Amino acid sequence: MTDQPPAPHAPPMNALRRTPGHRLGLVVLEVVEDAIYAIIALFLIGSGSLLMFGAGLYIAQNFNVNNIHNMIVHVLDETLLVFMVVELLHTVRITLRDHALAAEPFLVVGLIAGVRRILILTASSDSLQSGPQFFVYWVQLLLLIVLVVAMVVALFIWRRSTIPLGREPKTPSTGS
Fold first, then answer.
1. Cβ atoms within 10 A of the Cβ of 163, count?
2. CA distances in angstroms from 101 to 11, 93, 104, 164, listed in the order given
3. Whether residue 49 is found in the same domain as residue 30
């Protein structure tokens, strides 16, 4: 191998990024990005609040001891949806704080969505008879379980890959 000097005709990439116009453009884009994320956060806060209010209103208007199962399924569905909105809000907060998009909160939202659908699907399966609807129910349930297991595995791999070298996660001591 021969040692060749770098080509004199091409300026280094870092030199191009040091211009005042480039820095100003980056600052403007960052401010616009933060403003958009703040607006998204406001929409998420409003959505979560309205969902919680709607669930409370549904309880107040439809409370019936004889039909409590349907009310609980509906309120559980709404509450888990609020939980997803809060997780998305957490993701927006992390993005604003770190100026980086984190994958883990999206995996958590996907996991919550899968579990939510499994709970609602199984809670509303009382009226299923044998036949095509029964088959569709089981296929959908099986696919949701596979999705949830995949999300759990992805979260496990993600968390294991982000542990600094030489540090293992803390585990409860066994008293020895």
1. 10
2. 31, 10, 9, 19
3. yes
Residue 175, phi-psi category: left (phi > 0), alpha (psi -120 to 50), beta (remainder)? left
CA distance 112 to 116: 6
Domain total in the chain: 2
What is the rounded distance in angstroms from the CA atom of residue 135 to the CA atom of residue 141?
10
175: in domain: no
Task: Flag whether 20 is in a domain.
Answer: no
Read off the DSSP letter of residue 169: P
Which amino acid makes up residue 92?
V
List, for residues 88-128, the tens digit of each pLDDT value.
898 888 888 887 877 888 888 889 889 988 988 888 777 77
> Are residue 151 and residue 90 in the same domain, yes or no?
no
**139 is in which domain, residue-wise?**
103-162
The pTM of this model reads: 0.66
Q: How far apart are CA 42 and CA 70, in angstroms?
A: 31
